[in-house]
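Appendix B. Worked example

We walk through a single record from start to finish. Start with the input: the chain for FAD assembly factor SdhE, Chitinasiproducens palmae, length 90.
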Amino acid sequence: MSEATHQSDPARRARLRWRARRGLLENDLLLQRFFERHEATLTDEDVGALTALLDLSDNDLMDLFLARTEPQGALDTPAVARVLSMLRSV
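Next comes the structure step. The output line below is what the pipeline stores for this chain.
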């Protein structure tokens, strides 16, 4: 049996939203708006990219959100660029 996808598993969606809670209020607000606008259309690839972004510190994440920096190294992928573009548009 295959593993449930993000969209088919309400528990996975809830865990992702919980994990997206941040200590920096600005990041938290931006991520809340992101989920309100895009959660229903996120693919598993998008979720993987978002999860990689959420591994960053709050300050590094804010720098990416505000386009002060761009993804580097392992984060420099098309999937991360797509999710980051979605985040920057909210």
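Two observations about the output. Residues 10-88 form a domain with the DNA polymerase; domain 1 fold (CATH 1.10.150.250). The chain has one domain: 10-88.
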